[in-house]
Automatic annotation (TrEMBL):
GO terms for molecular function: cyclic-di-GMP binding. Pfam families: PilZ (PF07238). Residues 6-108 form the PilZ domain. It comes from the Bacteria. Gene3D superfamilies: predicted glycosyltransferase like domains (2.40.10.220). This is PilZ domain-containing protein. SUPFAM superfamilies: PilZ domain-like. It comes from Anaerobacterium chartisolvens.
Length: 145
């Protein structure tokens, strides 16, 4: 196995954990197809053409278990690649609050851990309910007296 140095500061996962909309210079908003996301940036696909170093605002709705979080993050395009149906863009966040960065990193790590775990997580659609009767069974009432 080859040894390599991980360049990334944050883990990344598929864009399935969130929905994203971008706007350039406060202009028209475009819902984008996220390829992946990390606490440091995103990769997305679009038919629209943007140049490298274009500043943009990313509005994210991040889904975590039974909650959703909304955040707006400024960033800029660091790489443009030609894709099958348009372009693929890599965006680096440059104005993300430490709170949003930690929150996003924790959600991504939790998502990755649940995928790699053999145990079921709430987002798998499998729930366990414990039904507690209103009263105690007669046998338990006698024992506790």
């Amino acid at each position: 196995m080859d040894n390599f140095t991980e360049r990334r500061k944050y883990q990344r996962c598929s864009g399935s954990i969130c929905k994203a909309v971008i706007s350039v210079n406060g202009g028209r908003q475009e819902e984008i197809e996220l390829c992946d996301i990390s606490a440091g940036g995103i990769k997305f696909a679009s038919q629209s053409r943007y140049e490298e170093n274009t500043s943009l605002t990313v509005s994210l709705t991040v889904y975590s278990l039974l909650s959703e979080f909304k955040m707006k993050i400024d960033g800029y395009i660091i790489r443009v690649e030609r894709a099958k149906h348009g372009y693929a863009y890599s965006v680096k966040f440059d104005d993300i609050s430490i709170y949003n960065q930690v929150q996003l990193d924790e959600i991504i790590n939790s998502h990755i851990n649940s995928i790699n775990s053999n145990r079921h997580a709430a987002e798998d659609g499998i729930y366990t309910f414990m039904l507690v009767p209103k009263g105690r069974p007669p046998a338990l009432k006698k024992v506790q007296r």
